[in-house]
Amino acid sequence: MDKKYGVYICTGCGIGDALDIKDLGGVAEEEGYPVKTHPFLCGKEGVELLKKDVADGTNSLVIAACSRRVNFDIFRFDGCVVDRVNLREQCVWSHPRSEFPALEEDQKDSTEYFDRLQMLAEDYLKMGMARIEKINLPEPYKLDTLNRKILVIGGGITGISAATDAAKAGYEVTIVEKEPHIGGYAAKLRKQLPVEDPYEDLIPPVIHSKIDELEKYPNITVKTDTVVARIAGEPGDFTVTLKKPGEKIEFDVPFPLPEEMKLDENGKDLDVEKQHELYLQYNEGRQDILTFDPNGEKFGAVILAAGWRPYKPEEGEFAHLGFGDSPDVVTNHQFEEIAANGKITRPSDGKEAKSVVFIQSPDKGDDDSDFAYAGSITSLVSLKQAKYVCEDYEDGKAYVFYQHMRTPGLSENFYKNIQQEPGIFLTKGSVMGVSKNGDGMIVEADDTLLGEKIKVKADMVVLGTGMVPVTADDPVVNLAYRQGPGFRDIGLFDGYCDSNFICFPYETQRTGIYAAGGVRRSMTIDESMEDASGAALKAIQCLESVNRGVSVHPRSGDMTFPDFFFQRCTQCKRCTEECPFGALDDDEKGTPKPNPARCRRCGTCMGACPERIIGFADYNIDSVGSMVKSIGVPSEDDYDEPPMRVLGLVCENDAYPALDIAGLNRLSWSADVRFIPVRCLGSVNVIWIKDALSQGMDGVFLLGCKHGDDYQCHFVKGSELAEIRVKKIGDALASLALEEERVAQFEVAIDDYDKLPQIINDFVESIEELGPNPFKGF
User: Fold this and answer.
1) Whether the domain at 1-137 and the domain at 619-778 fall into the same CATH topology
2) pLDDT at residue 708, as a whole number
3) 37-45 long-range CB contacts below 8 Å, 24 or more apart?
C-alpha cells in the first residue's frame, strides 16, 4: 500500500503536563511526519479530527496517547494501519515526578527528571514511527471451499448434547460412536445426580430423553460401531477417514522407502500395510505427509466427546483396603453395575449388602491424597451410591469416609439433603485398613471428626476411584499432523486434552478440535451437558471465523497469518517441530507446509527460524528489529555518565497489561527501560536481542507467562521455548565479551502488577553493577 503518514499526540490525562509536547512533535517532524496534537483524542472532536485526515488520504497513523489495550475500537479505521504509542500508562503515569527513580530528593525538580521522561516518550514515539513503516494491512486467508459440517466423536451424554445444540443452530452434525449403540456410560446408570432445581434428589437418567430429542433433528447423522482412522487438513477443510473398530486401513505411501526397507528378512516385498508402518517410523511418525483419503468425509470442525473409562487398579495397588483379596471390595464403577441390575447384593455370595462403606481416599493418614483422576464427581458419586443402600433396605447403613468432600455449586443442596438421611454416616477420616470378619469385613478408620478411632462392620466396601479420560490411552482423533496423531504431551494433564487450563477450557492444542466432558476433566452429567454447549459454540465460532479468514483464539479476529520466504528455507524443521499447535506440516525434504486455518498467530515459528524468513503482515522480524534500532542509546559523547538503556520484550497477554495496571496505580520503575510488546515470548527471535546489545544497550529482559507444572502461557510452550533460546544465547554473548547476566527472563501473571517495579528495578541495578555495554557509542 502507498502510505500517507500522520502522527497524533494526545495531551490529555496528564500527558501534556508532564511532557514537552512541542519537542516531542519535533521528533516526528524531523523524520518528515506531519504532527497534530489534541487535548482529548478519544473524544468526539478528537475522533472527528482523525476521521477527517483519514478521509483526506492519511492511512498510516501513529497515535501517541493511552495504551493500545484501551479505546481499541475508537482508534480503528478501515483500510488504515494504526500504531498506538503508550504515553499514558507506561510513561507519564508510571513515572510521576514524586516517585521518579534514580534521583535523589534534591533532584526531583531538576531538569534530569524532565530529560529522562522526555527521552522515554521520544523513544516510544520513534519506535511507533519505525513500526508503522514496516507493517502492512493484513489480508484474510480464506479457504477455496468451506465445509460447515461438525463431527462429534463420542455418542454419550456429552456428544449427544453437543450435537443437539449445534443442530439447533442450523449446522449439520455427524456423531461417530465406537459402540453399537449411543448413550455411553450415562445409559448404564441406575440413577443420576439432579440437574435442576432444587438439586436435592436423585433422578432417572436423562440420557433417554436426550436420545429421543436427538432423533428429531434431520441434520444429525449417527454412525455407530465406527471410529476415526485419521483426521487430515485444517479447520473448515478437515478430511476424516472413518472405519469399523479393528478394521485396518491402507493409506498410500507417497514418498518411497529406501529400497532395502521394502524387503522382509527373506528378501521378499513387504505388503503395503507393513511398508506404511515402516514409513512412519522412517519419517519420525509424520502422518501429515501421507496423501489425503479421496474417500474421506469433509468436516469443518470437530468436537471431541469420547468420554472416560473407569480407573482400573493395578494388582496389589489397594491391598490394604482389601481390593483384590475380597470380591466384596469393589470400585464405584463396579458398584454402579451391581446397583443398576437390581438390589445391592454382595458379589461373593449374592447375599444382601445392608452395610456398605465408601472410601474416598486410598492412603493412610495422608490428607492430600485422593484416588487418581478423582474430584468433586467422585465425592458426589459416593453420596449417590450411599443413597442406593438406603433405598434398597429400610435398615440399610452407608458409611462415607473422606479426606475431601467436594460438592461445588448447587450440588451443595444434594449434599445437605444426604446429611439428613438417617441411614448415611459421613465423616472425615483416614481408613487404616480393611480386614475379614467371618463372611463380612471390618473397616478401621482414624482421625475422624469424632476424634476417635472407629471400627465398622461392612458387607461391602466401595473405593471412590476416578474417571480416566480415554485420551490417556488412545489419541482417538488420530491426526495426520507433523507432531503425531494425538495431542502434544506437555506433561501436565495425565491424558486430558486441555490447551490452557486457565483461559481456554474447550480449546485443545489442535485448532478446530474442541474437547468436552470426560476427556477434559471428571464431570457430572449436568456439567457434561453444559460443557457440550460450550464446545458446540466454540466449534461454530471456529467455522464462522475461518469463513471470515480470521483467527479463532486466543487472538480472536486476528487477520494475519505467517508468511514464508521459502527461497531461503534451509529445511531445518525448527518451525514445524516447535509450533505448539501443529499448524505446520512438511514435505519429504522438510520444507514447511503451512495450514493457516490451524494457526493461532502466536509467532513461535517466527521466533524459531534462524534464517528469519517467517513473518506476519503487522508483526515481523523487521518491524520489531526496526523498533529496537530506533531506541536512542546515550553515549559518553553526550553525557559524562550516560544513563543505562535496557530493553524489555514483554508478552502482550499478561506482562503488557500488568504494566498498564501498574501505571494505572502510579507504580514506578526505571525510566531507562524501553518496552516492546510481543505476541508471545515464543515469537522472540534472538536477533532482536543481538541487535539491542550490538547497538550498545546495556541489558535485555523477557517478561512473560509462567511455564512448567503451573504453566499459564496462552500459547502452551512459548515461554518455555523462549527460555531455552535465551540460555543458548550465552555462547554468542561470551564471544562478544558480554556477560550472560545482561540477558534474563522473568515470569509474571497478569495480576502480578505490584511485583513488576521490583523485578524491573532489580534487573536494572544488576546491569548497573556490570557496567556499561562496551559497544556503547559504536
Assistant:
1) yes
2) 74
3) 37/8, 37/9, 37/10, 37/11, 38/8, 38/9, 38/10, 38/11, 39/10, 39/11, 39/12, 40/10, 40/12, 41/8, 41/10, 41/12, 41/65, 41/75, 42/10, 42/66, 42/71, 42/74, 42/75
CATH topology of domain 563-615: Alpha-Beta Plaits (3.30.70)
Tally of residues, the chain:
778
DSSP state of 642: P
Residue 747: how many other CB atoms lie within 10 Å: 23
Q: What is the pLDDT of residue 108?
A: 45
- Give tens-digit pLDDT for 680-697: 999 999 999 999 999 999
Supply the CATH classification number for the domain 1-137.
3.40.50
Q: Which residue has the cell 526505571?
A: 670
Q: What is the CATH number of domain 318-463?
A: 3.50.50.60
The answer to whether residues 414 and 199 touch, using CB atoms and an 8 Å cutoff, is: yes
Cα dihedral 490, 492, 498, 503 sign:
negative
Name the stretches of the chain with pLDDT < 50: 99-109, 254-255, 285-291
Q: What is the pLDDT of residue 287?
A: 46
Helices 525-548 and 157-168 pack at an angle, to 10 degrees, of 40
CB 72 within 8 A of CB 18: no
Q: Quote the CA–CA distance of 439 and 689 in Å, as a whole number.
A: 74
State the amino acid at position 109 in one-letter form.
D
- Let me know: does 143 contact 650? Beta carbons within 8 Å: no
d(CA 180, CA 313): 27
CATH number, domain 150-245+292-308+470-548, options 3.40.50.2300, 3.40.50.300, 2.110.10.10, 3.50.50.60: 3.50.50.60
Cell reading at 347? 458379589
Query: Nearest 5°: CA angle at 526, between 521 and 531?
Result: 50
Whole-number average pLDDT of the chain: 90
State the number of CA atoms in the 13 A half-sphere of 700 facing the CB. 27
User: What are the Cα distances from residue 711, in Å, to 375, 601, 717, 720?
Assistant: 21, 19, 9, 9
User: For the segment 109-151, what is each residue's pLDDT rounded down to a tens digit?
Assistant: 455 656 889 999 999 999 999 999 999 999 999 999 999 999 9
pLDDT at 106: 47
How many other C-beta atoms lie within 10 A of the C-beta of residue 90? 25
Grid cell at residue 660? 498498564
Q: CA 534 to CA 743: how far, in whole Å?
A: 42
